[in-house]
Amino acid sequence: MDADDVACRDRFERQAGYLHRHPEVGVVGGATVLMQRDGRLVRTVHYPVEADEIRRALERRNVIVYPTSMMRTSLLRGVGWLPIRLRRGPGLRFVAAARRAHSAQ
Asked: What is the pLDDT of residues 21-64, one digit of tens each?
């Protein structure tokens, strides 16, 4: 997340709890709500939630939106830390390496 991102009140607790209960999962994420600067809703972008859907989608595009995601430290240590400035290429390379290191379940 960066300075203009806003998280739902219980997001971190829910994501950390899910990772705790599901040690086989390396990354959790969520939908993205796009808003105007004045707070008006533009749209909500939903991403795949089932493991098979995520795997298929990752073949075409990155569906892990970093500001909505929580990742295991062990995953980052195994793959390498995410670059500070993410562009399409490095982001997709990171996701591909993460998939190899820890299956998308």
From this structure: 999 888 888 888 888 988 898 999 999 988 888 888 888 888 88
Unique residue bearing structure tokens 């999962």: 25
| One-letter-per-residue 3-state SS of 10-60 | CHHHHHHHHHHHCCCCCEECCCEEEECCCCCEEEEECCCCCHHHHHHHHCC
Is this model's pTM higher than 0.70 or not? no
| Cβ neighbours around 68 below 10 Å, total | 20
Question: What CA–CA distance (Å, rounded) separates 49 from 65?
Answer: 13
Return all residues near 63 (Cβ < 8 A) that are at least 6 apart.
Answer: 29, 47, 48, 54, 57
CB atoms inside a 10 Å sphere around CB 71: 21
